[in-house]
Write a structure and sequence with these properties.
The protein has 220 residues and is α+β, with helices and mostly antiparallel strands. The chain has helices spanning 5-39, 55-64, 71-77, 91-102, 153-168, 175-218; strands spanning 45-52, 82-88, 108-114, 127-136, 141-152. Strand 4 (127-136) and strand 5 (141-152) form a beta hairpin. Helix 1 packs parallel to helix 3 and helix 5 packs antiparallel against helix 6 (175-218). 25% of the residues are buried. The protein binds ligand 0O2.
Length: 220
Amino acid sequence: MLFPPGEFAKIKEHLIIYTCALKNISMRFDILLEDFSNFHIYNPIEHIKTRVKSPESIAEKLHRQNFPITAENARKYLTDIAGMRCICSYAKDIAYIADVLRQQPDITVLSEKDYVTKPKPSGYRSYHLILEVPIYLTDRAECLPVEVQIRTQAMDFWASLEHKVKYKYKNKMPEHISSELVECAEKIADLDNRMYLIQEIVDMAYLHKDATVDRIFNSR
Ligand code: 0O2
């Protein structure tokens, strides 16, 4: 599917504004990274990835949803043209980061999907937020949606493999592969929890040691 010639020029212009929306949200994450690294016990953000949907995949999505392929419809009906993925260390960081974003007063949360506590039948786990962020241009202000997906490294590894497999089988995945993927997703969720427990135990041992050191110093 492709945009008609006149519409293609328009969507290219829109994509520049969506790139600005991604810059806006990326800058917020840069600030959070500074905050976590300097003022918190640990930094839960492993890394951030951003992408703007290509005109071809915007056209394909509009077609799939039975909308005429126009720049205006893309703007009106698609909320994932600008996308960001935030990869966290542990599953429990996901809700925390979502909450930190929710509390930013100039961000509007348009929708949320919790595939972490309620995974998709495929096994897919991730937390999705559609956020509306303000962009200030020379002559106007605009609010644009950005899809933020928050997940652990293990969930991300799984999602990218499953995406590749789905693409390879053109969405007609054999049953034995899809059930293997569901099982892997469950094992990954279990591993995420076990690794978090190890981190908690190490933190507690470290804090306990600190308390012992404090006691020794205070009794002098
Ligand atoms: P891309 O190229 O990654 O952007 P929507 O398709 O957004 O209208 P839906 O399915 O209700 O409708 O949205 P949802 O569930 O929030 O999913 C949006 C995105 O999440 C997808 O974008 C994928 O990136 C990811 N996703 C959702 N389900 C799965 C899954 O089962 N496996 C994998 N690997 N990723 C998933 P797009 O548009 O499909 O593609």
